[in-house]
Here is the input.
Amino acid sequence: MSIEQWNERYRAGQQLFREPSPLVVRFSRDLKPGRALDLASGPGRNSLYLAEQSWRVEALDGSPLAIEILHERAREQNLSIEARVADLESDEFEIQPGAYDLICDCYYLQRSLIPKMRSGVRPGGVVVAIIHLTDADHPLGTPTRAQPGELRAFFADWKILHEYEGKSKEACHQHPVAELVAQKPTH
Here is the structure.
């Protein structure tokens, strides 16, 4: 979908979830709060949760309206989040190497970001990813839907803390998903 289509959804009151992803909650609560990056944050459900847990959060999304909503929500909750519009699909987009203890990528697949995510996590840090999978309508995959096993293959040399492929466990998502939580080696 284009950025304008996302903006239209947000204007219509769609995709304005407030509850964080259960996977983000489950795997961040046992980590010592540090610096987190929320890629394709949308209106910031995961960013807001992490900030509430004392994480220093940077949230990035291509939609100016999503970032505006996130800023508004953060002000309402008296939370500090560095949220900005970013063109994640641009070849010029970079993630600072070794800068984050946690990177979240929920419901957004941009394959060119995977190496940047891997580089952006500090040794011992964690990536939490949830990506839509192929289905009967798109059996060969698409630019935004992964093949079974593809997400795990990107992190095959990391410690896999959680892996699941199948029906989404979040009622707000109807397509099958791949979930992965992977920890970067410390050496």
